[in-house]
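Would you mind writing out the residues of a protein together with its fold in token form for me to study?
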Amino acid sequence: MSPAVRSPARPSGPRPHGLASDDVDVWWFPTARRPDAAPRTPARQDRTVRAVLGRYLRRTPDPDEIHGRCEHCGHPTHGRPRLRAGDITFNLSHIEGRTVVAVARRPVGVDTEPVSSGRALLSAAETVFSERERAGFPARGALDVRLAAWSWCAKESLTKATGHGLAVDPTTVHPPCPPPPHGRWVAAPFPDGRALWLTSALLPGACVCAVAVDGPRPAALRVRRWPADD
């Protein structure tokens, strides 16, 4: 069984089929079961995501119960994924070989990036980072590569939590850098004046993961591999 990893804020036991209003759960699963296996199809990934949601709903939702209507402009497909009913919210991120699903009871955003992506981000720094942020990456060394990957990952999670996505200029979003420790929630200002909560999530492999939520400060972060065996 993969252990649940928690914020030090509240060391309580697992709540397998429930989710408190101040908790955030993060699940990850591989997109290929072995190196020579074919990758999961989008339909297979969708079934797995719905199975994760079913853990909290106590039933697996049908595909048409999930929609992507933008809450800002009303576009039917380019908004964050949402359930049509109920108070469970979720968000997704995909990198090669892995899908990550964050589940909460308030707006949530999650993003994961390979550390190696920081090299490309640094090469396009003027379009991605503010002048102040670029001043923090002077050496273009290994540490800067990791910090650049984290900063972009955090920007993505924050804009996904508000439902804006990359309609917001990424150079105007300034997440804390270096990242907060796993499970320690810190305030992160957003360009519209609100303050969101942001933390890093520890996942296996050479990647970074950021989780952001709107609303009150969360209490606990749980990170586990899907499927659960409890």
Observations:
- The mean pLDDT is 87.
- The longest helix spans residues 142-162.
- Residues 31 and 41 are 9 Å apart (CA to CA).
- The radius of gyration is 17 Å.
